[in-house]
Amino acid sequence: PTIVISDAKPHTLTVTDNFGFKSSDTIVVEYPKIAQPDKNSVICAGDTLVWDTKLDGDYTYLWSDGTTEKSLRITTNGDYYVIVTDNEGYTLKSDIITVSVDSIGFESIIDDHINACSGEYISTNQSEGMSFLWSTGSNQSSIVVTQSGEYWVKVTNQHGCGVSDTTLVNINGI
Q: Residues 136, 82: contact at Cβ < 8 Å?
């Protein structure tokens, strides 16, 4: 007799011979587990999310983009999955993950040149809710300038994506 096993748990088979003697054996069927990122992943612009299945053995891979490598390098928005096939032809499909690219890195966040009076505030064009780090050490969204010179600021959002920009400040007046 043959049985089809569709779940990964212990299965016991007991047989009785012609003399009434019983013999049992237990097997555990294990399906490969495909490692995968969070189902909703965010990457920063210019970064790459590498999805490695972490499977060892004789498998072939077919990714949602048509590639056949063991891992997939993701750089764009989209839905991704992989179909893994073993050497017997059995397949296993991963869950679908959705990747979003945070594009904060493509914006200019402060004017290149600023004319200001001593004691005037300069600020970025970024909204509150971001974290800021200025060349002065300040972590506020704006800083007071008292000297001409170059100032830089790094802005980081809730996903950890950041962008830096520099401005040249010219102090006007006396």
A: no
Of the candidates 98, 6, 100, 7, the residue with the CA atom closest to the CA atom of residue 45: 100
Reported as a single tens digit per residue, the pLDDT across 27-48 is: 887 778 899 999 999 999 889 9
pTM: 0.69
Total residue length of the chain? 174
Q: How far apart are CA 151 and CA 91, in angstroms?
A: 57
Which residues share a beta bridge with 86? 59
Provide the CA 109 distance to its chain's centre, in angstroms: 24
How far is it, in rounded angstroms, from Cα 134 to Cα 118?
18
DSSP result, 26-90: EEE----------SEEEEETT--EEEE----SSEEEEETTS--SSEEEE-SSEEE-EEEEETTS-
